Amino acid sequence: MLKLKNVAVDTAPENTAFLSRNCVAYRAEEFTALKKIEVVSDHKTILATLIIADDDGIVRADELGLASPAFRRLGLAEGAEVSIAQAAPRKSLDAVRAKIDGAEMTPSQIEAVIGDIAAFRYSPMEIAAFLISSASFMTTREVLSLTRAMANAGRSLRWDWPIVVDKHCIGGVPGNRTSMIVTPIVAAHGLYMPKTSSRAITSPAGTADTMEVLARVDLTAEEMRAVVEREKACLVWGGHVNLSPADDVLISVERPLRIDTREQMVASILSKKVAAGSTHLLIDIPVGPSAKVRSRSEAIGLRKLFEFVGDEMGLSLDVILTDGSQPVGRGVGPVLEARDVMAVLRNSPRAPGDLRARALLLAGKVLEFDPDLRGGAGRARAQALLDSGAALAAMERIVEAQGAAPQQYALGAITADVQAARSGVVSAMDCHRLGRVARLAGAPMDKGAGIDLFKKIGEPVVKGEPLYRVHSCFQSDFEFAMELVEENAGVVIGEKRTSNENAPCYET
To answer: Whole-model pTM?
Structure first.
């Protein structure tokens, strides 16, 4: 037996174990060729990738080290006795190999693969093999099976109400924080909306990152339920509630590889909504030349896939296509986006009109899931709740119920204005590049980092006038962002606004 040690190294999502080359219980050389071992105690077992250590400071001869993620998952105290064994190959990998060769996976095969991924039995290399084989082709039957398997792999929430609503944007447009406006509007109306959101992975901010400027978001499932029962809604980080945990593992490998197929997107989104107990869901697909979805025909194909899987999963689903040609609002980054959200909720004259209009459109669509609301009356009802202050009051109650933000966040003090190189009219904005600038500036890790937009498409600009301001909290981040700006600022100035048949395609 070996004594368990917590090695303070973050190897997420992978489980990693450390064995001394001078181990007293095992000959390390026998394990050097292995990719996986089983770590075994009296009651618990975990699979881990093994690293042989030559430094006694990492792990001594009578110890087995587990990197922090694996140590937490095993759930034993330091010094607990464990043994190791050679890990048997995962049978589900046979299905992945068959998929690589072009076979269609059965529902049971997909369920086995997702079960192993959710239990951290796959290495990143094995996950990548599954993702790439699936990215090559997936049938609609496979997408449906993948969605079901992912929804069933973790915790599922169930509510006592016949209608539980939600909305989700597929992303790709900076500043699009409509959920933080839609949710309190819906709660003020009286529908239940337990909104679970993600943190940013490659974007400058996720809804959870921005909401954390105002309130606690790392609630447990029990705390989340209490907030929803009291206030009819919440805005929390879904990762802490353990909904569709396989999705979080898949995303951690997808993003570095830039794999983002529509099939995997649909399974990811719908599995989390089903696991969260939603019965009615609005999907927002922004379409624009630098958004995730760049043509109306592509958007329609994605909408049909959402509708097929949603119907089979028992969701009442509505899909809307919106303008993805430029960022929404003025701020990009958690503090700046929270500023815009609260300006809209407070009916401030300085509130971004596009964020307000988009939020009202989406809130109206969600409210029309209410059978007691006349068809077509949703937007007017949403505007009345916003104009009256009822939505702001609902947001203040939600913030109070979730608890105060863990700290006060200030806007980054290291700034520079990006100026127009010529006079004219803003004719295009690159959502992808502007998002990268904000992220290099430090967002969302530094909540006060990001960019503050002064100009939008169609607005006139004079040479030397600022287009946007970069905010950073650290000099190195500021310099990274400005290097990207100098290469290309992400804003095109023309004589007049140029037309693009793919954007906008804004449904009203």
So the answer is: 0.89
